[in-house]
Amino acid sequence: MKQLFQHAAVTEGVIVRVAVNFLPEQSRVDAGKWFWVYHIRIENDGDQPIQLLTRHWRITDGRGLVNFVDGDGVVGEQPLLRPGQSHDYVSGCPLGTPQGSMQGHYTMQRADGTLLEVAIPFFPLAAPATAS
Length: 132
Prior knowledge:
Elements: E1 7-11, E2 14-22, E3 34-44, E4 50-61, E5 66-72, E6 80-81, E7 86-95, E8 99-110, E9 115-126
Antiparallel strand pairs: 1-2, 2-3, 3-7, 4-5, 4-6, 4-8, 8-9
């Protein structure tokens, strides 16, 4: 099945695309726990290799509570992308509310050693309404 990327951001030739899906089978709505999975594709449309070093996320729940997540790489990897290459990964986000949002940036290093802050687009997290 071809993934439909709903959100995208471009920073100096690096494109970050995001597709997000609510996972009812991983959620426990009765216990106040909702879970989403997101698929990210990072594309290097620039003219030199770049390596993803770190990630920075700003996760906001439906009450406006903000949680920051920082770390090395993505899902245990620090991929090197040559011009024209892309890297895909999938991760998840639990929340204590049925809606929220995520956004952030990656710190990447160019072949010449300079650092580049690459935007991760804002994307909403929204569980479908359920009939009571």
